[in-house]
Amino acid sequence: MQKKLIPIIVLSVIMLGVDVNQTSINFSTAYGQEDNSQRKTKKTGSMTEKVAKKLGEAQELIDSEQLDEGVEILNSILEFKKLSPYERGQVNYFFAYVRYLKGDSRGAITYYKRVVADPNVPDGLIQASKFTIAQLYFQLEEYANVIAAVDSLLVEQPNRTDLYILKGTAMYQQKKYREMIPIIQKGISIAEEANAFRVESLEKAVKETASKYRVKYDRDTTDSITLALLVKSKLQEDLADTRKSADKYTEIEEAIKSIEADAANLAKGPTRENWWLLLRAAYFELEEMDKVKEILERLVVEWSKKEYWTQLSAFYGQDKQEKEQMAAYQTAYHEGFLEKSSEFVQMAQLYLSVEAPYEAAKLLQKAIDEDKVDKEVKNWKILAQAWFLSGYDEPAIVALREAAKLSDDGELDIRLARSLNNIADYEGCTNSAKTAIQKGDLKRLDESYITLGMCQFEVADFEGAKDAFANAKIDADLRNDQALKDCAAAENMGLEELLVTMETQRAFREMNKEIEGKVISCSTPSSVKTVANWQKFLEKEVERVTMLENQRKALEEILASNESNALTF
Predict the structure, then answer these.
(1) Which end of the chain has the lower number of beta carbons within 10 A, N or C?
(2) pTM of the model
């Protein structure tokens, strides 16, 4: 007969995105199969053909959602004379099923308890009823009753993994995090011990393959999965050196497929994902993050998912394990898990943190070109930084120019101007510096004017440079005045007193005389001196250029005069 499976969602831990699904409630109408491995056979009587036929009719009606009609047939069976305990147990099992379908979990429990209470009912049916009772109590959020029901089952079935998981889940709901951990671990341990032979066989196969193809490895430290990967790598090298037409080529291909399957089976343990998620959730609630990290390391091996890799990467970051953090996030990238713009940017930043700017630049440039990353200021800035650190000025300038276009203030434009100055693009530098000053909101207006003046000087715009340095001096002087006022306040002096004191101390130093009292030294903006130097240099350069120009004109006049005299002669 057909089995009905009703899934129960046990819990959802939002903070870590955990979804734990408990084993489904199984309302089997199979005729009470015995667990003969753990108990003596019980004489329970047989099922008559008449009862079996009626149960089949009831089954069909219930499956077609004609519940009341199905109940009528079940009641008619109870009117039969000399029902065996087996038959009566099956009828009560059906009644419980109907109560559940009607949403009456407590009524279903009542009928299941009738099955359990009859000592003459087959043990298989009793155990199935007990487990279903435990699940129904879970639905009713009566977790103490869940635990009691499971404990009753564990007395007779101590190696049943699903019982430990259900008990541990109920304890989680009671917030008994510390107490539930060994329960879940016990269930996991039972499952893994039962899996020992399978693992041993797989490990043996991997080692035999390694021996056949002469793969050297450290027998003391190399685990079987790592060995399988080493063998695969060696086989792939052999394949590359083998003609496709050769018989050995096919042999190596098959060997690669076999070792891949062995590695996959070794990585796939006997446990279920939700068991580890339960443990992770408990350790998270206990704030034992090292344990959470350990479980994530297990999860990524057997159930490679985006959230596990990114969470693991975050944990490595918190522990200052930058290389491991990078490796975990890199795996997520290579597995194709990264989808959001922020995720690609995060990976680029991780590359930068481990001093791999070229990798950061390549990744981010590719993502931007493929429209996977938002073309906004901050992302262009990161790309520009990555290219600059990699020593690639041209693509860096392209990125910086895009960032500057989108920026409302002039900071990025002045950065662009300085970058263009560095590659001797003085015309571009001049235009970008002017744009920066026009946009405004500059942190250092004096330095921005200095950059403009330097680039104007290089394109022989001396008048423009002169104006730029003059504007730079205005802002530099204002900054210097403020610096002196701040210094005077710090020294508890008036501004005039400070200036006199500083001038006196300067004179004493020039005369190599010892200064009495505290030596006062106030920092002034470096731009003050820079502007002064550039103004002097510009003045001399203008004089030099003017002299050369006058000499040129004089020479042209002489030549013109000589040509005139020659013609006259």
Answers:
(1) C
(2) 0.62
